[in-house]
Amino acid sequence: MSSTSPTWQAVAERLVAERGDALARYAYLLCGNRDDAADLVQDALVRTFGRLRGDFTPAGAEAYVRRAILTSYIDGGRRASRWRSVLHLTARGEDSGGDGSDDRLDLQDQLRRLGRQERACIVLRYYEDLTVDGIADRLGITPGTVKRYLSDGLAKLASGLGGQRGRAPGAPATAPSLP
């Protein structure tokens, strides 16, 4: 066993133990499905720790894993996504259950209706709390394009949620906590 193996294994174990739930919530916000979110996190962990380029700290590893989650989601290259077109033949949709709030369910439904880029920009802005420039850097697009995706996404969310009185135009709806 090489001398670096315990280091990356310890970092991976610590990251999953301390930040695994936060990574799963982040992936869930992007894809809107618990199973797909778990797949995104798993794939990102494998990508991150499968090709180490140096010593990682848990915070540094988390940044790489989050980037891998986002990239996988944007690219749409995961195996599971290929089967969505035939999934309806064998399975029923997710049961939302009666214990969630109507607002949260409405928001999740509206997030699912956004395009990939719009949804990624909304999540990065309001969950990751990134600036427009930060989102542009993360996605490799211009700040103007980010503004357009945010504007379009927020307009679709507001329209789909029926608008909320007392909010300034263009102000985001307050996102309820995730399950």
Describe the structure.
Residues 1-6, 77-81, 95-100, 164-171 and 175-179 have low confidence and may be disordered. The chain is globular. It has helices spanning 5-31, 34-50, 58-75, 79-87, 102-113, 116-126, 132-139, 143-160. The termini are far apart. Helices cover 67% and strands 0% of the residues. The longest helix has 27 residues, at 5-31. Helix 1 runs antiparallel to helix 2 and helix 6 (116-126) crosses helix 8. It has 179 residues and is an all-alpha fold.
Strand fraction equals under 5%
**Helix count?**
8
Principal-axis shape equals globular
Structural class, please? mainly alpha
**Unreliable spans:** 1-6, 77-81, 95-100, 164-171, 175-179
Task: Give the rounded overall mean pLDDT.
Answer: 76
What is the CA-CA span between the terminal residues?
Answer: 40 Å
Short key terms for the protein model shown above:
8 helices, 179 residues, mainly alpha, disordered C terminus, disordered N terminus
Layout: helices, strands, pairs:
Blueprint: H1 5-31, H2 34-50, H3 58-75, H4 79-87, H5 102-113, H6 116-126, H7 132-139, H8 143-160
Helix pairs in contact: 1-2, 1-3, 2-3, 6-8, 7-8
In short, what is this structure?
The protein is mostly helical. It is built from eight helices and no strands.
